[in-house]
Amino acid sequence: MRLPNMSSNFLLAPIPENADFFSIRDIKLAVFGASGVGKTAMIVRFLTKRFIGDYETNTGNLYSRLMCLEGEQTYLQIQDTPGHVKMEIDSAPVPEILRCLQWAEGILLVYSITDSKSYEYVRHLYQHIRKVYSDSKIPVILVANKGDLLHVRQVSSDSGIQLANELGCFFVEISTSENCQGVCDVFQYLCKEINKVQTSSSGERRRVSIIPRPRSPNMQDLKRRFKQALTPKVKASSTVA
Ligand SMILES: Nc1nc2c(ncn2[C@@H]2O[C@H](COP(=O)(O)OP(=O)(O)OP(=O)(O)O)[C@@H](O)[C@H]2O)c(=O)[nH]1
């Protein structure tokens, strides 16, 4: 059975009571790659630490979460991009991919070591990134996923290193199914790189204001208020008697 994708709201962490809502760091990153390379699995592994076998084909979900990164409260947004989009080197990227490219501050380019076409796909994608960011620098990490499936490997580690050298970006080979730490390291490293770029361009980290949602009263709260409202009356009536 294929599980549905988890919605971004489901993954939104509860806002801590004492959070400083006006000085929260803001990071936006996007995960690109061909269909089936494990983009959704990676994001969910990072956010929940769990590996869930199967997902609906992703059409572009946005995951958001408050988390502590490098000792600071951070509002992290991760865009999962659709992998079924055709990617040609000479044609312009389709609007949904272009929007994600322009929105992101850091990019994970994912291919599967079991699928040489997915390797070519990221090469094309990178050409589009260079066009969008022709005069600015955006941190990119090339990720070779499904490192546990060595018996059906189609792309060697050397090919991954070679592509990363060509593209001038970081490279890592991981297995989302077998190594949670490897996945977390990738996301955390990218966040650090984004942070460096933000700090060097503006002198300080970008921040957002998050206004906490008003809480809906729960039963305990209602009972307490009801008791409070009753208490003086009871006292008053007992005094009269
Ligand atoms: N063996 C193995 N399977 C993996 C790994 N990562 C993901 N998968 C499996 O690969 C399949 C595709 O994973 P998804 O996360 O749905 O891939 P996707 O890139 O989001 O695909 P689209 O939604 O079509 O764009 C699922 O069956 C996952 O369980 C891995 O590291 N090892």
From TrEMBL:
GO MF entries: G protein activity; GTP binding
Reactions it catalyzes: GTP + H2O = GDP + phosphate + H(+)
A Pfam family matched in the record: Ras
Species of origin: Pelobates cultripes
Name by which UniProt lists this protein: small monomeric GTPase
Annotated keywords: GTP-binding, Hydrolase, Nucleotide-binding
UniProt signal peptide: none
Keyword GTP-binding: yes
Record-stated family: Belongs to the small GTPase superfamily. Ras family.
Annotated EC: 3.6.5.2
Keyword RNA-binding: no
InterPro entries tied to this protein: P-loop_NTPase, Ras-related_GTPase, Small_GTP-bd, Small_GTPase
